[in-house]
Amino acid sequence: MTGDETRSIRLLIADDEHLIRGALSALLNLEPDIEVVGSADNGVSAAELALELKPDVCLLDLEMPQADGLEAAARILSTVATKVVIVTRHARPGVLRRALAARVSGFVPKSTPAEELADVIRDVAAGKRYIDPEIAATALTAERCPLTDRELDALRLSRSTMSVQEIADRLHLAAGTVRNYLSSAMTKLDARSRHEAAELAWQQGWI
Amino acid sequence: MTGDETRSIRLLIADDEHLIRGALSALLNLEPDIEVVGSADNGVSAAELALELKPDVCLLDLEMPQADGLEAAARILSTVATKVVIVTRHARPGVLRRALAARVSGFVPKSTPAEELADVIRDVAAGKRYIDPEIAATALTAERCPLTDRELDALRLSRSTMSVQEIADRLHLAAGTVRNYLSSAMTKLDARSRHEAAELAWQQGWI
DNA sequence: CGCCGACCATGACAAATGTCACTGCTCTAC
DNA sequence: GTAGAGCAGTGACATTTGTCATGGTCGGCG
Fold first, then answer.
1. Tens of pLDDT, residues B166-202
2. Which of B21, B26, B113 lies at the smallest CB-CB distance from A26?
3. Residue A75 contacts residue A64 (beta carbons within 8 Å)
4. Most exposed: A106, A125, A160, A184, by fewest CB within 10 Å?
5. Nearest Cα to B75, choosing from B41, B106, B51, B105?
6. Does residue B45 contact residue B70 with C-beta atoms inside 8 Å?
């Protein structure tokens, strides 16, 4: 309040790919009013760093090992007074829904023009929200997940190359039970194999 | 030879993700001896731009629509006197092999530290080669692909959620024949389902 | 030539997967 | 309290997938 010099936005970046992390730092440090104060390569250390540095905004990649962007966002927002922007390669409707539920302030796909990212961060730092309009529209037209928890469990494991028996063992269920869940999920999603069903559910962001 | 001012390296960047493209530009433009002269979001326009701009080095992402990094590299190197560096998220041994066959000069995963990228580009511009040591070692220990052409065809299609019958139709074969190819591929790769076999072959970069 | 090996192709059989009908159990909501 | 929804399981059955034995074709090669 003493003059026209605005305090710059302190930013934390998390992305598992070193190259991307460095490149984003370089890009955003070019902005006079943004200062990258830290970076992490997974969700767990991102949460720790956020607690330590108390940045104004955290830019989190969705796809990360250990804890993904949503998990990290949840941890960070429950312990630190900061804003979170999620960046993602696969912007799926269900993921946006979960991100908003986690009280994230911004959601942008990696296909966003680089010039816009700084503006998004400024908006978010100022207390506004920014949701990529494309994804928002898709999410609004996409129907809500019709699957039960157990069906989702079975589908999740079906994305790997496990057999039905292996999935059953993992879930502590009988093989026939798992087949039933998968079968009903396939019916609901209009899929012709459990793999197709798992793929569809993944695309929707339900698993 | 007239003084200590070296001509800067003219660089072309291709990556399908706008954000990454912009961030890499920002990162590399920070280097005093590197100048980003153009960027493209797919392999086809990368090849066209390279022909037009004749850059010293092309930095190509492997995963791109239209034509992927390898295809773009082949086109570029057959028409323009330039060097190519491939950047990739999934650095698989077989892909490195194909990249080298396409006379690419550099091969780096996206997990490379950002600071190193500029050095790689300088090395390549100077006529040297740079191969990520980690991947090189893996590629040398990995055995050569034991699969026949038809087996690879069948595996490629098995990565989607098609049924065996659909694959057979696509390849103009009997269903039983396709099952045989998949079965023998599974034996060779020690997999327990065609999906697992397709996954393994993909990880090796054979398909 | 005649034989070999590699690849391609098929049909018969076995095992895994998907479908359906039905039985309980435990919640929650009306 | 009882109807509905989700969860867990069973058994019978059809379909799909994986395995195996077998033949065909083609290009080397002695």
1. 888 888 888 888 898 999 999 889 998 999 999 999 9
2. B26
3. no
4. A160
5. B51
6. no
Q: Which tokens in the block code for residue B163?
A: 């049924």
Q: Is 0.85 topped by the overall pTM? A: yes
Of the partner residues B19, B89, B163, the one whose CB lies closest to the CB of residue A114: B19
Our CA dihedral for B139, B95, A27, A139, rounded to 10 degrees, sits at -120
Is the CB of residue B161 inside 7 Å of nucleic acid strand C? Answer: no
pLDDT in tens, A99-124: 998 999 999 999 999 999 999 999 99
Check: CB of residue A195 under 8 Å from CB of residue B199: no
- Token pair recorded at residue B46: 């990368």
Burial of B155-168, coded b for 16+ CB within 10 Å and e otherwise, reads bbbbeebbebeebb
Question: Coil, strand or helix: which one is B111?
Answer: coil
Tokens of A135: 């994804």
What pLDDT does B4 receive? 45
Closest listed residue to residue A13, CA positions, set A25, A1, A3, A30: A25
Nucleotide nearest to B146 (CA to C1'): C6
Q: What is the reported pLDDT for A5?
A: 55
Q: Are A14 and A46 in contact (CB under 8 A)?
A: yes
